[in-house]
């Protein structure tokens, strides 16, 4: 009887139903979170261990590299004829000074180029009483050298003197390289390389020697070196080690090991598991406490909201699943779908961001933006902040001047150097810096000039030393003039690349202002012509005048064109006019321009540019007059293209811009004029309508239908479908099936 009453209350009391369902929704994710956190912390521990393993492997490789160089240097000293001759001389007061000086010079030359941090010093012992070299200085005084001599003599006792070997002396690791006589049999002395143990401790322990121990173990299991010897009683010689790298868990200790490729030594790091995960344990307790606190607060809020508003969850259902049944199963499905869709959207945005940023810079540096408003909107979408009023462009390259001459190794090295340069620039400059790759060798750096960025020589000086030290290459630099408008960055880009052409090994930094007069050709870059064509077709007389003023300044103030060069420049302008309008309207203007070119030295160049302004202005007006008719036809072509290519997942403003050779902003404007709605909404509605037909007329899976209508992911398709139709695709298919079944009955 009691259970029936509870069921009755649950079914008819909305407040109780909401409370119970809310508790279930809260408790289930809580259990999942507890399990997830447990798995997460297990994975975190493995990640920490693998991070330590990678660090140990790196340190092992560094030590191997250092030891190899030390072995080579010690062998060179021991095999040196001057050192062997000095070792064979009898001790007397009349030692041959010349031989001694040659030996010391030879040793110093070898050690001078031995730049390794592992080496503390080098002592050369000769098997004659009171006769040894320390740091390149010869000691012969018996009274002052007696103790040192005894130490040196003791190093060779009990070992095979004719073989090079390692030795631990007073907790200092040493490499002993015997010096053999000219007969190749008699032992005349030894080169003793003392290792820097502080460097070894710092490299492996990173100043964490209180909670960690380091063991250097030979192949037979004997320990060559150990820190914190008293902190563990484990016999490490009995531990079975497999492979070149790994880890072993012994109780509360974790042992990470790496095997040297140089001498088969084993490097072991031993640390306490509790100490290693100390910070994670605190986080674990904090997370569990937060979850419990969230549950308590959630229960209180659920009670308060359910009593005050009755059924607040209905508002959520009405917004997302208006026709679905009100139960906890549907609620959980809805929440999971929302979270999954949002995460998928974030992942898509994150993956597309670098491509969008590159596309933005591509348009910016080619001068393809119609106006600053379009530029600012797109910059905001890709995450760029356009706040500066003054810009400068740096162009640089590594190694080969021609991309076709570069080898794969060179390109890889250049890419690494480019990443290093990016990091150093961002470290030096506090403002946002943009990078653009022209090709694998030439890169552009766009600087907002607000302070230190206005002094490129200081920036380059800061970077140059680091690149030379790390990669042994010197980049060449070209620097543009200041650019006062972000819309004019295409010009600064051309200037920086032009300056880079003059950079060489003897002159690594070249400013455009210094080489403009040295250029042998006239100024008429590709981006200039594209901008001129675009502004003419748009009827923007102000922009046309600014471009012509730029041409006048570059060709006749910065440069001094010859008659031959001026004729070529005139032909370029005429060619551009013909590209814009092939009608007879161009002919009368070209005749005037050619007539001026014939009398080049007799007339003022300003009159020539006045003719150009008139020609481009008239043709621009003509283009605007015919634009209406062309626009109407273009509108229809755009809509027809979308209607037939809606299933292409790459369909977008960029695709239409490339297909019809117009800007994305112009595509968007024309499409809205034709359809009365924006491009994205039209395509979305078109695809959903086509998918409805497929749901009704075919038995394709929902995933396949999503692909057929142009969606890359099922999550995006479902989100769009619910937005347009108010129900999910599966619900619509079920409704269609029910109607079809009723029709048959």
From TrEMBL:
Pfam families according to UniProt: HTH_18 (PF12833)
Transmembrane segments: 20-41, 288-307
Annotated GO MF terms: DNA-binding transcription factor activity; sequence-specific DNA binding
Keywords: DNA-binding, Membrane, Transcription, Transcription regulation, Transmembrane, Transmembrane helix
UniProt superkingdom: Bacteria
Domain HTH araC/xylS-type: 636-735
Gene3D superfamilies, per database record: Homeodomain-like
InterPro entries with a match to the protein in the record: Homeodomain-like_sf, HTH_AraC, HTH_AraC-typ_CS, Tscrpt_reg_AraC-type_HTH
Signal peptide span: none
Record-linked PANTHER family: ARAC-FAMILY TRANSCRIPTIONAL REGULATOR, HTH-TYPE TRANSCRIPTIONAL ACTIVATOR RHAS
Entry protein name: AraC family transcriptional regulator
Species of provenance: Lachnotalea glycerini
